[in-house]
Amino acid sequence: MSRRDNPDRCPVCRMHATLCICTLVPNLVTRTRLALVVHHREANKPTNTGQLAARCLARSTITIVGARDTPVAPLSIAPDEQAVVLYPGDDAVPIERYAVSGRPLALVVPDGTWRQASKLRRTLPGAAELPCVVLPEAGPTAYRLRAEHRTGGLATFEAIARALRILEGDSGPAIEAAMLAVFRAMVERTLWLRGALRSSEVSDGVPPAALAHDPRGGGPARRS
């Protein structure tokens, strides 16, 4: 049985069933459309955050690329959309430049390791011709499930949320806050499952089902 078929895991969010975050995921309608491009090696990892971000956004699309012998389709951009790639390339401009765009935006976000993301921009038909945008310097990542080796590096989810804070005008801060609430729950519940957080350190609390039958060891969980 594969990890994806594990009956103890939610098949959608891939969290342990007692820690499932699906009911917390909002359905946010934004002017900016997210076009997430996921490297195939990243797609089924429980720690992937880009696809969770896409689930929060009503008009988002997800494209899986990079599998051997699988042709890569060009990006689907509507005629009225201005598409930009969120990636800190040498030619990147500040994302604020597009905050007042007169056209609807398609935010193309490569999702994978830094090496995979750089290849996606080169190999995805049409992506190399699109303008590249970069986020302003901000606080450190709150993603504690993987080691971050780049100064200022963010999880894909965080980068998308911060981009929308800028691009969505007056509603941007509320959109970012709604997204980050789900992100925080995913990170803290996973850390609790790993034994890295006590129950009292989980901001929104550990779900009752997980406390009743601790998925870490089979018995009732300690609440300390």
Could you describe the 3D structure shown?
The structure is a single chain. The chain is an alpha/beta fold. The protein is about 25% helix and about 15% strand. The chain has a six-stranded parallel sheet. Helix 3 packs antiparallel against helix 4 (about 170-195). The longest helix has 22 residues, at about 170-195. The chain is globular. The model has no long low-confidence stretch (mean pLDDT about 85).
Task: Describe how the helices and strands are arranged.
Blueprint: E1 33-39, H1 50-56, E2 61-65, E3 82-86, E4 93-94, E5 105-111, H2 114-123, E6 132-134, H3 156-167, H4 172-193, H5 208-212
Parallel strand pairs: 1-2, 1-5, 3-5, 3-6, 4-6
What keyword list fits this structure?
224 residues; alpha/beta; six-stranded parallel sheet; 5 helices; 6 strands
Describe the structure concisely:
The mean pLDDT is 87.
Which structural class matches the secondary elements?
Answer: alpha/beta
Order of helices and strands: EHEEEEHEHHH
Total DSSP helices? 5
Helical fraction? 25-40%
Task: Please tell me the overall pLDDT.
Answer: 87
**Beta-strand proportion:** 5-15%
For the biggest sheet, the summary is: 6 strands, parallel
Total beta strand runs = 6
User: What general form does the structure show?
Assistant: globular
The parts where pLDDT drops under 50 for at least 5 residues are none
How are the strands of the largest sheet arranged?
Answer: 2-1-5-3-6-4
Q: Give the radius of gyration.
A: 18 Å
Distance separating the two termini:
34 Å
